[in-house]
């Protein structure tokens, strides 16, 4: 029987289980080889993306769409489904809502990156008000890593709504200023912007996370922020082809072409992190991460059934 999992089922998975699953996959040297780069083609309303990956127990593929005009229609910009198969028989076992899965996956990867770079700070500035921003705020609170947030965005109403959501979780959350950005210990950018959304004057020991884009021409972080920073990415190959923040910093001459290191290497202890430096984690989203979260959703349902 093919099980169906809604967005609510995805959200029901404990944050700790999500982070543990992603971390476990990231540490495994075989993981990146078991997934391929996203493929896509243009559709009338936007883009259709395919992201397959395999593990010993389960294999899956995310079929996602990106429709830039959807927010104006009251619909999610990103939609789709995740189809999960048994790896041995390749029998379909589950179909999972990909909107929440993508949001939880992105935030979960950020949590793994933040922990690898030294951990969350006393105060976090979240730039953006989308479902991704909401997911990052929720996981930080649920994990107990941070309960003091400033929210930054273009639309006052959306900023106020996200701040209210944070307060409903028991956190302190308010609309932030540029000053709040430059003094925050952790800055997370969750926007669809193609040009930088933060200044290059963030704190010298800040952890800056950028998750909003996966194209070479888009960058949420200014190139100047990368000067003398430690830069961590999911995959060097993905970073040099999809991570506009990294690509543009290299082109500007402020980041040496071979300076970025992979998350797995940091987690395995191969690369030490200097907490006195500015640290940057750039994520573009990879198929193995979707599979890690889909697996957590599937296993959570099995454990609940006993």
From TrEMBL:
It comes from Kribbella albertanoniae. One of its GO terms (cellular component) is cytoplasm. The lineage of its organism: Bacteria, Bacillati, Actinomycetota, Actinomycetes, Propionibacteriales. It comes from the Bacteria. This is Ornithine cyclodeaminase family protein. Gene3D superfamilies: NAD(P)-binding Rossmann-like Domain (3.40.50.720), ornithine cyclodeaminase, domain 1 (3.30.1780.10). InterPro entries: NAD(P)-bd_dom_sf, ODC_Mu_crystall, ODC_N. Pfam families: OCD_Mu_crystall.
């Amino acid at each position: 029987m093919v099980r169906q999992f809604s967005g609510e089922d995805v959200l029901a998975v404990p944050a700790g289980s999500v982070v543990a699953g992603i971390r476990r996959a990231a540490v495994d040297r075989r993981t990146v080889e078991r997934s391929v780069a996203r493929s896509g083609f243009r559709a009338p309303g936007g883009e259709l993306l395919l992201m397959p990956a395999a593990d010993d127990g389960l294999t899956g593929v995310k079929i996602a769409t990106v429709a830039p005009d959807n927010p104006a229609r009251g619909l999610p910009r990103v939609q789709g489904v995740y189809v999960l198969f048994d790896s041995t028989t390749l029998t379909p076992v589950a179909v999972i809502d990909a909107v929440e899965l993508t949001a939880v996956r992105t935030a979960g990867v950020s949590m793994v990156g933040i922990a690898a770079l030294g951990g969350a700070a006393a105060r976090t500035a979240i730039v953006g008000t989308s479902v991704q921003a909401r997911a990052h705020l929720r996981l930080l609170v649920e994990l107990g890593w941070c309960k003091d947030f400033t929210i930054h965005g273009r639309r006052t109403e959306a900023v106020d709504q996200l701040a209210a959501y944070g307060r409903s979780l028991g956190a302190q959350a308010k609309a932030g200023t540029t000053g709040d950005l430059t003094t925050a210990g952790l800055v997370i950018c969750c926007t669809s912007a193609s040009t930088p959304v933060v200044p290059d004057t963030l704190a010298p020991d800040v952890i800056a996370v950028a998750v909003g884009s996966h194209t070479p021409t888009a960058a949420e972080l200014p190139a100047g922020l990368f000067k003398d920073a430690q830069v961590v990415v999911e995959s060097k190959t993905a970073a040099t082809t999809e991570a506009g923040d990294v690509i543009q910093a290299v082109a500007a001459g402020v980041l040496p072409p071979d300076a970025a290191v992979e998350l797995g290497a940091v987690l395995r202890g191969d690369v030490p992190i200097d907490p006195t430096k500015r640290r940057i984690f750039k994520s573009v989203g990879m198929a193995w991460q979707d599979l890690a979260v889909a697996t957590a959703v599937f296993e959570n349902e099995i454990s609940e059934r006993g």
